[in-house]
Amino acid sequence: MVAFSNSGGGCVLVGVNDEGKVLGISDINEEKSKIETIARNCDTSISAKISSHEKEGKTILLIDVPEGKDKHSTGQINYEEKICKKFDYLEDFDEDAFEEFIRMAVISKGRLSNEDILINLGVAEQDGKNLVFNNVGVLFSLKTLQNS
Predict the structure, then answer these.
(1) What pTM was estimated for this model as a whole?
(2) Residue pair 40/48 in contact by the 8 Å Cβ criterion
(3) For residues 124 and 118, what is the distance between their CA atoms, to the nearest angstrom?
(4) Three-state DSSP class for 60?
């Protein structure tokens, strides 16, 4: 359930083996109670929906796990969050591409600078006097893409 919650959501079948053979469950209420307890006691509780179904004359449970709003943290940094050390804001940033992104995303700049907007979008951060970009920020603001 945690894996599904951390990704895009998914379904778990209880009473069906890995080969797809319907085994069924004997006590629906007991199984539902166990599943609800497990979901509730996760580090960030999971709001799974549990329903029972009849298949081949046997009862199975379907656990529908939605995508989590608060992802369970493993302490790892995803690729897209890593700072791209080769990207130089002053040399590599494409102002025109960024302005097009702002227009297409319908973002009102107001009095904010480009730097403030990039930081607010979570694609750049201030590192001393320099603005550094994560890999997502680099993808939509490169002047040219090239192999390096």
Answers:
(1) 0.48
(2) no
(3) 5
(4) strand
Separation of alpha carbons 33 and 121, rounded Å = 41
Q: Decide: 67 and 9 in contact? Cβ < 8 Å.
A: yes
Q: What is the DSSP letter of 8?
A: T
Nearest to 21 by CA among 64, 54, 53, 56: 56
C-alpha–C-alpha distance, residues 5 and 47, integer Å: 9
| Block residue for tokens 């107001």 | 110
Tokens representing 1?
Answer: 């359930």
CATH numbers and ranges of domains, the chain = 2-65 (3.30.950.30), 79-139 (no CATH)
Helices marked H in the chain — which ranges? Answer: 2-6, 28-40, 89-92, 95-104, 114-120, 135-139
Percent over 70 (pLDDT), the chain: 89
Residue tagged 């550094």 (tokens): 132
